[in-house]
Amino acid sequence: xxxxxxxxxxxxxxxxxxxxxxxxxxxxxxxxxxxxxxxxxxxxxxxxxxxxxxxxxxxxxxxxxxxxxxxxxxxxxxxxxxxxxxxxxxxxxxxxxxxxxxxxxxxxxxxxxxxxxxxxxxxxxxxxxxxxxxxxxxxxxxxxxxxxxxxxxxxxxxxxxxxxxxxxxxxxxxxxxxxxxxxxxxxxxxxxxxxxxxxxxxxxxxxxxxxxxxxxxxxxxxxxxxxxxxxxxxxxxxxxxxxxxxxxxxxxxxxxxxxxxxxxxxxxxxxxxxxxxxxxxxxxxxxxxxxxxxxxxxxxxxxxxxxxxxxxxxxxxxxxxxxxxxxxxxxxxxxxxxxxxxxxxxxxxxxxxxxxxxxxxxxxxxxxxxxxxxxxxxxxxxxxxxxxxxxxxxxxxxxxxxxxxxxxxxxxxxxxxxxxxxxxxxxxxxxxxxxxxxxxxxxxxxxxxxxxxxxxxxxxxxxxxxxxxxx
Length: 471
Ligand code: FAD
Ligand code: SF4
Ligand code: SF4
Fold this sequence. Notes:
binds flavin-adenine dinucleotide; binds iron/sulfur cluster; globular; five-stranded parallel beta sheet; alpha/beta
């Protein structure tokens, strides 16, 4: 039997030096050159059973786009990618590939081999297409099939809108904030996902004919009865309400939720205050970030870039349970973020002026598995200690955005306050109303939100067509 010989490791990718990048907001990963991308594409075995495709929630023809790249046919590679994914440059940068496409890659299952760097190749092809100045816009049917309202311009809403526009629908997105993109714009920092990339891919969606009304809060400035005039509705309002530890001292100056901290930095450009932005952000010298997900990594690395002398992440479980993307964790370590596992804050301590001075913590140990299947952290008695801190950022999770839900009481919610929807179609308890993304699943990932948007686009099309036939 022929022995397959391919390099064990992914083709290395250029990155900013950790010492330099810890002080700037420019993108950390610099991307592949054409030769590097082709070398990496050559590691793909073109597996007949395509396990990687099943690992991608939007089922991109991964071997197909990689083969075209290997043959240096970049327009074809981009065309294949774009026919499945409206936000490829975003996904190539932020998908947790290790648990999705790359987690299923055959090469990664071979002894001592890393999987094919699918995400980095996707990013390369998407960036190449944009820089070529020849972005192909698919032909849009002129005969319109109907009108659809989309609430929320995050990855779920943008995906459903783009797919419906391609099918020939007039689509209007209502977005509460002054910029479209959802978490891509207000949550994930510039050094991981440059805003110009998000804007570029949103402009592609606009070029399909999708209208985006920003500063439009459905349930406040736009009423539900206005929205009900459309043939169908998709709700993709996300999970943007921060959860709090609710421990003593939460009201001290210097205690932030990650949502507020990151929104000030990303959406309001607080790091350019006062010269180019009028939104300030508190600059802590000794910063503690609570949590170990992507949000915590983003908050800690942003604090470092703002000038913190030291940044500590405290997490009540161990490294093995950490939910962050592995790449971000490694980048955080390289930049000097300190990790304190099995540690939980129990109080914030302040001075007589109400400013935070320290975080009182307790050591934890892992007990029996809880409902999530992960071992439950249990406090160790008499193990309290304090960490000096003038700033704390809580990044312990988010819950559903409530404005729309309270204005739309007919929608059935789950016991956790998310919209109840069919996982295959997004159909809610109200006819003609579909939902997907974090507002259904709770805080999850960009590509899962996009996958939900794709399924709902198909279901909405079927619904609107059947409604028109029966009229
Ligand atoms: P969102 O992105 O939250 O978008 C919802 C949109 O709806 C928002 O723009 C909001 O303003 C709007 N909206 C809300 N209410 C209304 C209303 N009443 N009227 C009009 N508009 C409304 N995932 C990854 O895959 N990789 C990562 O690296 C990653 N990092 C993350 C880092 C941070 C800091 C955060 C917070 C999340 C991260 N995630 C990551 C998770 C991911 O971003 C989300 O799962 C994804 O954005 C969910 O998409 P969505 O469209 O459901 O909601
Ligand atoms: Fe992998 Fe995400 Fe690209 Fe799908 S969209 S192939 S999961 S990086
Ligand atoms: Fe290529 Fe890996 Fe997919 Fe096989 S599983 S086709 S090697 S990317």
